[in-house]
Amino acid sequence: MSEAAAGLRACAATMRSEADTLEQRAFALRDDTGLGWIAGATQEAQSRLRVAVTDLVELRREAADLLVRAAVAVEATRGPWDAQGGDHLASLGPAAGHDASWWAGPAITERNARLRAIAAELEGLPSPRVLDVHRSGTLPLVGAALSALSPVLGAYALWRAAYDATLSEPTIGPLVGGLPDGAGDAKETLDASRPASVSDLIADCGLVDDLGGQDRAVVDIAKVTTAAGEETWVVTLPSTKDWVVFDGDKPAPNDLDAIMVAALLPDSSSAFRKGVEEAVRQAGIPAGAPVLLVGFSLGGMLAADLARTGLGKVSVEGVVVAGSPIDTADDPAGVPVLSFVHEGDTVPALDLAPEGDGPLRVTVTDTVAEGLRPHSADGYAATAATHDADGSLSAPFARFLVDDATTEVVHTQYQIVEKGLL
After folding, report:
1. How many other C-beta atoms can be found within 10 angstroms of the C-beta atom of residue 192?
2. Dihedral sign from CA coordinates of 220, 173, 313, 263
3. Residues contacting residue 38 through CB under 8 Å, at least 6 positions apart
4. pTM, whole model, 2 decimals?
5. Positions of the chain with pLDDT under 50
6. Residue among 250, 247, 249, 309 at smallest CA distance from 276
7. How many other C-beta atoms are found inside a 10 Å radius of the C-beta of residue 16?
């Protein structure tokens, strides 16, 4: 195969691969729905994006086919110039060093005509317009719209979010003494936990909530070591525990301020997020080590966001959430995401988007078990156990789970306390 033909075929293969990737991303898009004009604007943008991506995929594949045709033309009509090792397609006129009779030969003339026709077809392909639409922008848009309904409340919410993201500095360290009433049993249970399923992972979310309360946020970081020496890490995040609005700010950073930062200042880091990032650093997780993020409610929101934007030098390779509004968040590339949603639980609906599946996302929607609250870690743990009876939901996270008695699990809890000016 000549150098020119090989180059054309390589370019065609690259374009086909890019087209396949774009098509997969187009299939991954889901309509966001909201209230009133928000829903209409978002759906229209998503529809236009799908059309643009589809056009681009078709154009790239058509261009790839044209390049292959060019390669076939080159291979079928090789002349003396090609045999001398100087073939190229930069010029379609007579080449220096070759007489006009050679260039004017019937085969070469035919090749030139075919190549000119292919070049004309390539030039004639329309340039598609791809819209820059980010699904993760829906929540800030909703927050801004709702704030506009009450300027005073909106200004207060924005100030609290800005304060949390800029002036509030958390202190982070290993969990020591002073546990809330009744939390001693929770710590013993958590320290002995050997999660073998996604249900066990979600149950641990309730335990970290019991250890924190309004005085601090508690993050559990478990090191899982198999008999073969493989090490993985599970980071379990707490839900919202400080619901105070106008009466100062409690020490726990997993509060309403953290939610407002996510809604109004999505490119900023809340005190809660800063604390989790520092806890992971203090845990000494090696660079590139595989990490599974688990969270309930606000903890799930932060887990999904950390997976998307990165968590220091570690490698986030899985996300398990329950009762969390993550449907407007972009899924991290190549990371499996499992989300549980209860009918009647209003918290997952706060993003005003429908639950659904993506390339690597599975959303399980069901009613809560009788006697349990829709928005509760134990309720979601029960639902996970029901749907994961065959182990299919746990399978993508198997390397983080305990499957035999030789696997060692060591839990360390870190406390995050917000020290601010309020």
Report:
1. 9
2. positive
3. 138, 141, 142, 145, 352
4. 0.66
5. 29-42, 80-104, 128-138, 421-422
6. 309
7. 17
